[in-house]
Amino acid sequence: MDAPSKPIDRIVIVGGGTAGWMAAAALAHTFNGSGKTVTLVESAVIGIIGVGEATIPEILKFNARLGIDEADFLRETKATFKLGIEFDGWRREGERYFHPFGAFGLDMEGIAFHHFWLKARAEGGDEPLETYSMAWQAARRGRFAHPQGGPQSPLSSLGYAYHFDAGLYAAFLRRFAEGQGVVRHEGKVVEVRRGEDGDLSGLTLDDGRTIEGDFFIDCTGFIGLLIERTLEAGYEDWSRWLPCDSAVAVPCERAGPLSPYTRATAREAGWQWRIPLQHRVGNGYVYASDHISHDAAEAALMARLEGPALAEPRRLRFKTGRRRECWKRNCVAVGLSSGFLEPLESTSIHLIQSAITKLINLFPAKRDDDGLRATFNALMEEEFTTVRDFLILHYKVTERAGTTFWDEVRTMTVPDRLVEKIALFQATGRIVRRDHDIFAESSWLAVAVGQGVKPTGRHPVSDVLGRDENRGRLAAIRDSIWRTADALPSHEEALTAAMGVRRG
Ligand code: FAD
Question: At which of 362, 381, 400 does a domain end?
Answer without folding.
Answer: 381
